[in-house]
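Quick review question:
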């Protein structure tokens, strides 16, 4: 038998509002890190590769910790996990502000902040939504949560640049850390955990993962999600510096990131709405294909403020629109009981892609003085991911729960 959704301890609208605010704060903070590339590397004397490695480790640690964070949320409750995550996340930013060199920055920005992002991530928020929301409405509500994350990016990009310009990058990190502490009181609205139905086994962590990995469509979904992480992390961290290299101002770079967040509100809501009406695997294939086309067009047209904002708008529509569809497929395959953990495994693949995209961007720039290699690789990977998603079966995994009970 499949796990059933339990009645939330607080009214559903409050659960959704609190979860969306948490997602906005957590993802908005993460989306602003690219603005710190130039001031941090200049002040601490770091190379782009060293800074890129710190951000790459952050993405990798985030991905490794995500299945465990989801598993803890499934077992012990989402509210507790999110509250701890908010504290760790804020501590990581304070550590970044006081980092005197590359090694300390890697530990604070990479390891501590990466763990904090995982525990306070929208993946854990989605686990709470998956538990509280009926199956037929999950894709749409996942889209709302993803749109809230994008709204956070739209808010935090200019806010972070304003803090940096007015107070310097170190004080800016302290102020943003203070905003992260809002996650702690908000997390109380998402308290609760998924419950097993009578006769259903409470599976060990690795047992549930091994069963899920045996489902072929899930494997394809996990592999394809790697490309999403590659695109997002590279553009988010290196786009502002790339535009400065092309002769534009740092403010244009910050507003480009903000425009991505603004347009992804539309993209995420549209994705969540379409995901309840059309085959999600084909929607995912279309998103990755359109990303490849958008990157190719951006490289072919001379860079200006207009083309930068146009590219940001296009990528914004496609930015996190993969998330409600991917989360919806995971929920469809396996139900809500293990969603936090199994979506976390898919997200680990996403973050491995993020690691490669961020690190390779810095490495390519230091070696060649250009980001062109990574842009072209992004086109190839987009086309490959589009092909990978087409064979996915948009249906429940056969006998997943009964075989494990």
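Suggested answer, residue by residue:
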């Amino acid at each position: 038998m499949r796990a059933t959704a339990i009645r939330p301890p607080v009214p559903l609208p409050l659960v959704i509002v609190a979860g969306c605010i948490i997602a906005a704060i957590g993802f908005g903070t993460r989306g602003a890190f690219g603005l710190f590339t130039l001031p941090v590397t200049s002040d601490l004397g770091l190379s782009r590769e060293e800074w890129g490695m710190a951000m790459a480790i952050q993405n990798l640690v985030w991905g490794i910790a995500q299945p465990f964070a989801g598993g803890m949320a499934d077992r012990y409750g989402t509210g507790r996990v999110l509250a701890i995550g908010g504290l760790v996340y804020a501590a990581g930013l304070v550590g970044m502000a006081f980092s005197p060199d590359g090694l300390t920055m890697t530990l604070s920005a990479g390891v501590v902040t990466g763990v904090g992002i995982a525990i306070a991530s929208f993946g854990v928020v989605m686990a709470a939504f998956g538990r509280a929301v009926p199956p037929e409405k999950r894709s749409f509500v996942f889209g709302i949560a993803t749109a809230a994350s994008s709204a956070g990016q739209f808010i935090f990009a200019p806010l972070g640049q304003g803090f940096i310009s007015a107070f310097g990058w170190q004080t800016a990190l302290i102020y943003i850390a203070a905003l992260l502490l809002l996650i702690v009181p908000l997390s109380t609205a998402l308290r609760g955990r998924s419950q097993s139905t009578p006769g259903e086994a409470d599976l060990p962590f690795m047992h549930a993962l091994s069963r899920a990995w045996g489902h072929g469509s899930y494997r394809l979904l996990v592999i394809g999600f790697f490309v999403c992480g590659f695109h997002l992390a590279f553009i988010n961290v290196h786009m502002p510096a790339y535009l400065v290299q092309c002769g534009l101002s740092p403010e244009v770079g910050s507003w480009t990131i903000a425009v991505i967040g603004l347009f992804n509100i539309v993209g995420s809501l549209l994705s969540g709405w379409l995901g309840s009406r059309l085959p999600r695997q084909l929607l995912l294939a279309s998103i990755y294909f359109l990303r490849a086309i958008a990157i190719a067009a951006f490289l072919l047209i001379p860079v200006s403020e207009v083309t930068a904002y146009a590219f940001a708008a296009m990528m914004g529509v496609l930015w996190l629109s993969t998330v409600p569809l991917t989360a919806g497929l995971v929920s469809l395959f396996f139900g809500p009981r293990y969603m936090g953990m199994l979506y976390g495994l898919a997200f680990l693949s996403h973050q491995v892609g993020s690691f490669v995209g961020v690190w390779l961007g810095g490495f390519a720039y230091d070696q060649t003085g250009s980001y062109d290699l990574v842009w072209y690789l992004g086109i190839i990977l987009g086309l490959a991911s589009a092909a990978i998603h087409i064979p996915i079966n948009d249906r429940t995994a056969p006998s997943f729960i009964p075989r494990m009970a």
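Why it works: Residues 138-167 form the longest helix (30 residues). The chain has one domain: 12-404.
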